[in-house]
Amino acid sequence: xxxxxxxxxxxxxxxxxxxxxxxxxxxxxxxxxxxxxxxxxxxxxxxxxxxxxxxxxxxxxxxxxxxxxxxxxxxxxxxxxxxxxxxxxxxxxxxxxxxxxxxxxxxxxxxxxxxxxxxxxxxxxxxxxxxxxxxxxxxxxxxxxxxxxxxxxxxxxxxxxxxxxxxxxxxx
Length: 172
Hints:
Layout: H1 3-36, H2 38-63, H3 67-82, H4 95-111, H5 129-133, H6 139-154, H7 158-171
Helix pairs in contact: 2-3, 3-4
């Protein structure tokens, strides 16, 4: 193993430690903020929960997400907000907290399979967004597929660059 390899491993380890330390500092700052401004934090959590519920309803309306899963997820968020009654004091043995923990696990296992965000399919060469929309699926999935297709058209592949350079040398 060369010195350059050892140096790169050391740099990667140092970068990883820097990221972990930065994350820990950020979490510590947020914990201090929550402790100092409990009323503001409660309002922020309540508003963010309302936004998440609204996004769930919009995904059901426009992207045809399963109705009963959306209802279950909205109900879960309702149970989560019950913890805000005594915020910042949350009893780890209260029914609301235990129900929230159980519902988080159930909710994540129900919505994780079929409704994952799309990945790019290189076999699809149709770049017209209107035609992609008519193929089925939701607006969000189709929009992300469209963006991923455009990104791959704008960024040349390494094999494309080397073949065009080879072609230009032959023409000289």
